[in-house]
């Protein structure tokens, strides 16, 4: 059976509800059917709380539960989990000094046919403005499970962004780490790819002399590993959301050397195009062909073009 | 319960009563006092802490006590004065109000102020937080009560509508909301506040928000089995 991050999230959350009586799942309809299909709503009627289509209240309720010592896992569509109740996240969780795990679905273009309303390429940038939050962008269901269990055990605040796009295999073995998938020659460009864009990036850079690094956690960024793996002055950041979202953190991590940083990602959030997720990857230049084109331009760019 | 990290309770050396509150409020000075807002909530907050709430400085960190969520967090001078009168704060704290190193800001911070259960000041947050806390009490099988104070103007915030409906559906009988009604809602529904709650399954009572005994009566006569709202009418003088 096809395994998705969303399926895995539901299964793992059910296990966490079973193993820890202080864990609560707070839903706003989205995902309810998946919890119901697994018998979890019947099994945990008081700790799976579906507030209905009330996304501001969803975060507020999670805050109230956290104030009373519970560990909320809150899930929903990224635009309605992060963008609509952003002030609630800021004030009802962060400012109250309490923690929750937010897990989104939808990502940048998963629901491409729904148009702009269900697309949130800005979510990670928004969440990154809030202090104390870790931000994870898993590229595989195994990574989602690893990061969710890690954050639940850790008890801090975390935003986990799931997507229907996923890599062929899981790469992250240690939560928060940056790993090297391909190593180029000394002085060659370094590509840091985030989340589910690994396969496309590896395909795109086949035959090129580049290093390819992978991160499923962008906040906090694994700066020591990044410093260790970067072998030249050109650094290319490839992210499946708003272009440049992690540029500042990458630049800060590499402020011990001169670099040229190129950021690739979503640059046109207001596409006004429906179609499929594949269409959107292509339009944003985040399929293999688009990534190769971007990387090639960087490699060929003279210093003055930086 | 998750508590402030730096709670230090004041040892009471003086007994204060209602008549002292005006003097305690006057200790707090500055340009951002929101005196009218503070005045509008004074009698309800005093009644809560003097006659209703199961909390005192020695139980402030206890998970088994009543909770008070001041959603109407702007103009907190009445709240601070009551907390000082009841021994959570010292009068020295009051004199620092709004200062650089004070724990008492123009909007309360639960991480700084002993006895403050939520940080507030942005309107429309306390009610949903109190719904979550009431649910937590229910899961824990704890029969404490939670009180949330909001303003009638604050009810304009759409977030309250979500929480009102939710509390009604969940039948959160431990939750009591006090609406300070000073007719400040720009497009409000005069006399219609109780209807907004009742239509969502709440029990509603209207009290004279300037009469301590009537306020207490309203709290004592709450209906069991539903969330309750007390509409405390304080007239138009208090913004």
Outline the structure in words:
The complex is a heterodimer of chains A (306) and B (239). The termini of chain A are far apart. Chain A contains 13 helices and 12 strands. With 306 residues, chain A is of the alpha/beta class. Chain A folds into 2 domains: 5-161, Rossmann fold, CATH 3.40.50.970; 178-301, Rossmann fold (3-Layer(aba) Sandwich), CATH 3.40.50.920. In chain A, the strands form 2 sheets. A 7-stranded mixed sheet of chain A has the order 2-1-3-4-6-5-10, sandwiched between helices. The radius of gyration of chain A is 19 Å and the shape is globular. Chain A has helices at residues 5-19, 32-37, 40-43, 55-67, 78-83, 86-94, 123-127, 141-154, 198-204, 223-229, 247-253, 277-283, 288-300, and strands spanning 23-27, 48-50, 71-77, 101-105, 133-136, 157-161, 178-182, 190-194, 211-215, 217-219, 234-242, 260-266. Chain B has 239 residues and is an alpha/beta fold. Chain B has a domain at 35-74 and 122-239: 3-Layer(aba) Sandwich (Rossmann fold). In chain B, α1 (21-27) crosses α3, α2 runs parallel beside α3 (77-85) and α2 (35-52) crosses α8 (212-220). Residues 4-10 of chain B have low confidence and may be disordered. The A-B interface holds A 24, 46-47, 49, 51-52, 54, 56-57, 59-70, 87-88, 91-92, 95-98 and B 1-2, 4-5, 63, 110-111, 117-119, 122, 124-125, 127-140, 158-159, 162-163, 165-166, 169.
